[in-house]
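Schema walk-through. Below, the input block comes first and the output block second. Nothing else is stored per chain. Lengths vary across the set, and this one has 181 residues.
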Amino acid sequence: LRRPLCGGNLGSLLNVEVRAGTNATALLACLASTEALLISPFRVTSSAGRGSVKAAACDSEANDGDPSLILTTNVALSDKAAFVKACSAAIATSLSKPEAYVAVCVTDGHEAMSFGGSTDPCALGCVYSIGAINQENNGALTKAISELLAAHGAVPADRVYLNFFDVPRANCGWSGRTFAG
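--- output ---
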């Protein structure tokens, strides 16, 4: 059992090597009851059933925070509720954040909007997050949101701008305080 420190927003990575004949999933469930994992809840990132398991520690200092999307488009979305839910799931997946923290605000049908000097279908959005803002995640989320805009509003991917902002913990408020304390 080893817990090397890893970079990014995943905190620590737990690597468990188990002997042949040991059910790795059962072992991981047992480990979840230990003090070390109670401090840092985890999620399984891969499992072979028997053999080895990797679990990313969900260090609350690194993973909580405001992943949020504020998006405006000049088209009427076909099913706004479904679009908002799909955006929320895409943010959680792309940024490796719990969806319970994700906030999405969408304004559709905004008439006073242009892109490249044209009022053809377009969208402009801002993504804010405490950490998890990097080239790989930004690219994955841009792709996902662009695909959702194309499916729900016929907005071409080349008429979508998403701007990404890494927010310091002290600059994000929630539940009557900031994430810095």
